[in-house]
Amino acid sequence: MIAILAVWVIGLSLTGTALADDLPQIGYSERIPIKDLAAKGYRWVTVDGPYACVTEEEVRKITSSRTDLAELHMVEEGRAYYMIPGTLVRVTQDDRANGMSEILLGGITKPLWTCHKFLTARPIRDIYGIVETPDTAGLIDPSDSVAGTALNERSRGKTP
User: Fold this and answer.
1) Of 116, 107, 110, which Cα lies nearest the Cα of 41?
2) Would 28 be classed as within a structural domain?
3) What pLDDT does residue 43 have?
4) Which has more confidence, 158 or 124?
5) Cβ distance 62 to 74 under 8 Å?
6) In this structure, which of 42, 93, 104, 153 has its CB flanked by the most CB atoms within 10 Å?
7) Where are the beta strands (DSSP E) in 4-149?
8) What is the DSSP string of 77-108?
9) Residues contacting residue 15 through CB under 8 Å, at least 6 positions apart
10) Residue 105: phi, psi to the nearest 5?
11) Lowest-confidence pick of 2-6, 24-28, 73-77
12) Residue 45: exposed, middle, or buried by beta-carbon count in 10 A (0-12, 13-18, 19+)?
């Protein structure tokens, strides 16, 4: 009985250590704590489904009258995108009155809207057991001067 209790206590202590750890290496030489990512507007997705839409109205439509046919049409027309738990997004705007957030998803060039309740500041492991970071999610941090400069130069037609 004492051996089982000892194993249980050790297991709990290791779990607490794992939850308190910072995110894995980001960039080349710096570690960014989770709280700093959340402060910069990064959130992790908690829901699985086509809940990222081009407009707030489409989010309301797909969440209120959810049918397979409606989802299929919206996805085929490029008006709804699937969100997968553990995916990192960056919130660019909050509409608190309607409970909506405008987000950027890695690999999608246009901003999308989703319900604020589908996002969390607490990291969630993806299907591979990895916590996504801005580097692994394909999101460029606007405060990163090198990435921001390269992006601005590219938008003006110059190559860095």
Assistant:
1) 116
2) yes
3) 94
4) 124
5) yes
6) 42
7) 42-45, 49-53, 80-83, 88-95, 100-105, 112-115, 119-120
8) TTSEEEE-TT-EEEEEEEETTTTEEEEEETT-
9) none
10) -110, 140
11) 24-28
12) buried
What percentage of residues in the chain have a pLDDT greater than 90? 34
The number of folded domains in the chain is 1
Residue 160 near residue 150, CB atoms below 8 Å: yes
Long-range contacts of 23-28 (CB under 8 A, 24+ apart): 23/123, 23/131, 23/133, 24/131, 24/133, 26/133, 26/134, 26/135, 27/135
- Report the candidate in 65, 54, 43 with the shortest Cα–Cα distance to residue 116: 43
* Eight-state DSSP code of residue 116: G
Q: Is the pLDDT of residue 29 over 60?
A: no
The per-residue pLDDT for range 84-114, each reduced to its tens digit, is: 999 999 999 999 999 999 999 988 889 999 9
Range of the domain at 132: 20-137
In a domain, 120, yes or no: yes
